[in-house]
Amino acid sequence: MADTKREIERKYEVGEGAGLPDLSGVSGVDSVIDKGVADLDATYYDTADQRLAASSITLRRRTGGDDAGWHLKLPVSDGVRDEISAPLSDALPRGLAGLVRSRVRDAELLPVVRLQSARDVRHLVDASGGLLAEVSVDRVHAERLSGGDRTTEWTEIEVELADDGDPAFLDKVEKKLRKAGISRSKSASKLARALAETGTEAKTGPVKLPKQAKSNGRKKEKAKVVVIAEPEPPNAGDHVLAYIRAQRDALVELDPAVRRDVYDSVHRMRVATRRLRSSFRSYGKALDRAVTDPIGDELKWLAGELGVDRDQEVLTERLTAALDELPRTLLAGPVRTRLRTWANARRGGSRRRLIAVLDGKRYLDLLATLDSLVAEPPLLKAAAGPPDMVIGKAVRGDFAKLSALVVEAIDALPGTDRDLAIHDARKKAKRTRYAAEAATKALGEPAVDLVRSMKSLQTLLGDHQDSVMTRLALRDLATQAHAAGESSFTYGVLYGREEQRAADVERALPEAWTAIFAATGGLIGTR
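Above: the chain's sequence. Below: its structure in token form.
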């Protein structure tokens, strides 16, 4: 069983002969408690080409101290990491292996560095005895286990904030350390420093300069002036590829969060798949669709698998909020219990299925294909064109198609026809938004305005679609309740309220669309 802890810490360089200054004078510190010295022995694992280190991820097996076991550290922000730990074992625990799979893929994890540390620990505590931070002086011996056999040694100070502590306290400690001449470490982690100092040894010695020719009495030739050409400005393909690369990176980076069931991670990963697929379709004049369409099909499959979990989350949240709004007089029967049972049963199955998808070959093959696409993009002639023309034309084309769909939805008869038309317009609004996102650096403020407008439209149309799906769920719940001999009255009340919400959206759509159309005229050429 893996445990997760948010780790907020800072590391500092310690010069020769320097030690830890007295920290009892730090504001808020009542006493400094000496916890003794612990001997730690850690082996760090990575692929031969150091894929984990490239993503600032560390994976180690450590003995000694009070937290022996396997530790995986995932970056959150500067100085902040999530540490996932598992009990000590000979082999890498399966759960941790899954969390690095999107980076490692099928490559073998090898021991790359061994760190042996003598850790001198002190606790900074407040007047009530509560822990504020743990400060340690670590004397480290690092040995390269693969990719070389060099060793290195250093001493550093590590300050780790206590659980639920105020990060501002670390600033107070740092102020004291800086006064003592101790500065922040240039390395983000011990592993990063060990890899840097035990890698391929740089050639040393005097630099051999070319021999100066002896004077022969002739006039010396003037030195040749080397003109360094300015880099070419980004073309349309560069802008599109930058956006695609960012979404590929998002897929890989969100994989561990989805496996850990981090809030909203499934939704964000699904959005990344949609952004990729939309980019392939919107910018088909720059990227060869004969190559990207099959990838788009795989992205659609992945988005569908992610959607099983996400759609259930949205439905459950919406139904729970709707129940909270109802007066008690309209609650009949064990409605909350039935909703909870219904949600857990559907979510449990979809969750297991999603993890199986992320562990499967099809998903890993998709990631590999995206890597290849980014490395060798199938660019067409238009990709070399000016961004404002090529990208602007693509965005305007998407907007024109959206405009036709919105008008169709407004004119459709109420009921199923309008529901389907609004759903189609919603999907096109998303695609237009993603195309505009990729265009912001190329087109500037008009594209930013379009993104903002599409978000607004997407929210409006999305509320309508959520109402359609919620009514389907309510019919399912009402059927189950009736079969169990329970009252279905409350489900009927909620169903009626959802019908009203959908009708409100339909009434608001014409005026909203008129405003959006006017607001986006700078890009689509209507002003």
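Confidence is low (pLDDT under 50) at residues 201-223.
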